[in-house]
Amino acid sequence: MPRVVPTYTEDAKKRILQAASEQFKEKGYFLSSMDDIARRLGISKGAIYRYFDSKESILASLYSNAPDNLRSLFSDASADPIAAAKEVFEKMATKQNANLFVDFIAEAATNVSLQGIMQENIGRFTEALESVLLKKNPTLSRKDIEKMHDSLVVLGLVFNGLNCWIAIGVPESDARKIWARTVDILLEPIVKRRKTPESRDTIRQ
Question: Is CATH 3.40.50.300 the right assignment for the domain spanning 6-58?
């Protein structure tokens, strides 16, 4: 792997974040060190400190990027928004991802900065989901969008809760079944509804 050099700041940050994500998922955030991340990259620990001043700042960056990663996964998924929501959960709801999420919550419990990121991400996740669903179903009316907002907030909370379940040993297959049922309950009434006079005022993205 190429050495991290200042000339390629953004690329360097991406490489560090990718290595840190893999390290945290394999060993756990609290049991991992900056030395572990440096060894994985084949660079000195000092090189990492050029871009991140602490392990905590790396964790914060990972979760700051999460809504954009979710948007990308949804964009690549099926055209049908209900199927897409189920596909994305299949990719994201793994034991390693769940463990890292729980580590983030544990760290955020006493860290105001991380709490802010998590609270902000709730809104950003919802906005990302709204944007993708509207793109996949551009005939949704303004009233549909208002209804969808609350449903997507609840969907995000269910997603987080199921990740906590997976982290404590609930089989991924059980979590997927609950997620699929939740998606059907919350999204189907919105995305499968027939056009009404209200749908004349549509939003296309």
Answer: no
